[in-house]
Amino acid sequence: MRYKTVNANIKVMHNAYNCGENVPLHLLTDYVKGKLKPIPYTGRGPVVTPIIVAFDPASTACSESSNIVIMQLTLPLPAEVEIVYENLNIERTVTLEGSYFDELIKTYMDDFNQKFEDKFQLKSKGYNDEYVTFARSTFSNLIGGIGYFYGKSIVKSSEVEKPVYYWPAALYSAVPSRSFFPRGFLWDEGFHQLLISKWDNTISLEVIGHWLNLMNADGWIPREQILGNEALMKVPKEFVVQNADYANPPTMFLALDSMFNSMQPSEILDHHSTLKKVFHRLTLWYNWYNTTQIGPLPTTYRWRGRNGTTDRELNPKTLTSGLDDYPRATHPNDEEYHVDLRCWMAFASRSLTNLGDLLGINVDKYRETAEILSDNDLLKKLHWTGDYFADYGLHSEIVGLKDTRVGQNIEKRRVVRKLPQPQFVKVQGYINLFPFILMILEPTSPELGHILSTLKSDNGIWSPYGLCSVSRTDPYYLKYNTQHDAPYWRGPVWININFLAIRALDHYSKVEGPYKDVSKQLYTELRKNVVQNMYREFSKTGFIWEQYNCQTGKGQSVHPFTGWSSLVVLIMGEQY
Questions:
Q1: In 263-398, where does DSSP find H-type helix?
Q2: Residue 391 a catalytic site member
Q3: What are the tens digits of pLDDT across the range 253-304?
């Protein structure tokens, strides 16, 4: 790194640097303050004070384990400094500074802008410059957040007594939020690659290949990648250990299925060897799901990892499903089964069949499973309540949190006011939509017609800002799950699920069936609601948000969140 003052008359009064080891970002300010000390200024020229606060010269040594280098320049004001980062191993006739740099960066920006328009065609769809800038910023933050990580996960399973280290592994992956979630998440990444693959298939195949290389011999992939000390410092202790018996939605099939459908024959030929390797890893991953996550009845599936003994939660979380605190059966046990996981497996079966056909591989057993799991009559028999699709399990319809004395403290504990019974879990929200949003339902399905006709019902999940995660009329709407756990998937608008709904509406509006017209109408309105609200919040705050308030549309929770919320770019470009 080099620096120079833009004004030749300005002289640097002092310069110093400091190298740190394993310095977490949230402690960076304290770290820098701890390394500063007053030193006398011995240079020439007028200064306000003869003392400069600078790094201690004794603390400047760098080592191979240093993860941060901090440069300090002290100058008289006003001053302008140009910092130049260059690879000294590359010979240059012109240095990357001044007008040459300005012209070069403009060339790259123009190339990016042109490629962005070629790929997503937002201007041709009528979006003005402000909307296009919003979309470019969103996408560039997603793809610019791709990082390289290296380290060892900590893993436990039913086969080992204590947690053990996974093998040292590398991961090339996008992240949900560079500041708050700077690491890889399995179910998030499938959504990320839906968008990134539209930009460059090669990048997506590289990322997916890294994730599949994290698979163990059984076919399991850790769902949260906490690789290295720096990543570890950002994660609460209770989330560090990954359980090899627990799954996560197999969203990589979403990205791969989208890629297969858009690839030209020449691209398939170019990537044929890679795709065959991917296919064989996918079959191992799929078979792991199909043997470890099965439910109590044939063709049913159950998320593992729910706590059936706690009285601290209003409704025990299902972190493995990705929907965290979305209400499930109040009393988890081995007899429950979950409609969203069944739909994920139907989609994965279909996707695996399509890839096998593409590569000329015999996939008859996966085709048979896809046909069984896509059988609408069987799906209805297992999960249809008469009004919507739902989970089944041991469930009480009347539970609450009550102040309870525990020793010297008052804590919230769950009280069950009605005995639980084996039944459908009649909570209205995202879970009911999975047979629709993953397009398992036939275009002529009466259940599809019922879902579409009630999607906009008053005080349901429809809002001017997108689909809400839980209906505003449901008892769980915006309810805390514990004394301190605020509602997460109990009301807010989430963009990944809204993307799937918009994508499904687009599909059903283009295939022959009795619900073609209503699908088109809902598609147009929901797409408009999501895009306009996200743009409005971006204009106000400068951020893309993790979720949006169901009642006001305001962005909330983590920001910036340019992970799956970036799917708004595909919604704008109508690329599904």
A1: 265-270, 272-292, 339-359, 364-373, 376-383
A2: no
A3: 999 999 998 888 888 888 899 999 999 999 999 999 999 999 999 999 999 9
Distance of CA 38 to the CA centre of its chain: 45
Among residues 277, 128, 251, the alpha carbon closest in space to that of 197 is found at 251
| Helix segments in 326-405, DSSP class H | 339-359, 364-373, 376-383
Beta strand 241-243 pairing with 154-156: parallel
The strand pairing partners of 170, in sequence order, are 150
Q: How many CB atoms lie within 10 A of CB 36?
A: 16
CA distance 67 to 198: 33
Q: Which residue has the tokens 């599936």?
A: 301
533's enclosing H/E stretch is: helix 516-541
Q: Tell which residue, 49, 51, 62, has the closest CA to residue 17.
A: 62
Long-range CB pairs of 403-410 (<8 Å, 24+ gap) are none
What whole-number distance in Å separates Cα of residue 470 and Cα of residue 530?
A: 17
Q: Which residues contact 351 (CB under 8 A, 6 or more apart)?
A: 253, 254, 256, 257, 260
Strands (E), 417-478: 421-424
Catalytic residue among 117, 245, 324, 357: 324
Q: 406 phi and psi, to 5 degrees?
A: -125, 100
DSSP state of 172: E
Give dist(CA 319, CA 469) in Å, integer: 15
Which pair of structure tokens corresponds to residue 163?
């947690």
Which is nearest to 441 in space by CA: 388, 496, 499? 388
Kindly write down the DSSP assignment for every residue of 17-72, as one continuous string.
EEEEES--GGGHHHHHHHHEEEEE--SSS--S-SEEEEE-GGG----TTEEEEEEE
Amino acid in the structure at residue 93:
T
In single-letter form, the type of residue at position 574 comes to E
Dihedral of the alpha carbons of 459, 463, 464, 465, in degrees to the nearest 10: 150
- The two tokens of residue 433 are 């939509």
Sign of the alpha-carbon torsion through 39, 43, 47, 50: positive
Q: Tokens 């008289």 correspond to what residue?
A: 76
Query: In DSSP terms, which residues pair with 14 in a beta bridge?
Result: 74
Closest CA to 560 of 148, 203, 175: 175
Of 189, 224, 340, 546, catalytic: 546
SS3 label, residue 273: helix
Q: pLDDT of 370-390, one tens digit each?
A: 999 999 999 999 999 999 999
| 334 noted as active-site residue | no
How far is it, in rounded angstroms, from Cα 362 to Cα 353?
A: 9
Residues 553/537, Cβ–Cβ less than 8 Å = yes
- For 485-524, write each residue's pLDDT tens digit: 999 999 999 999 999 999 999 999 999 999 999 999 999 9
pTM for this predicted structure: 0.91
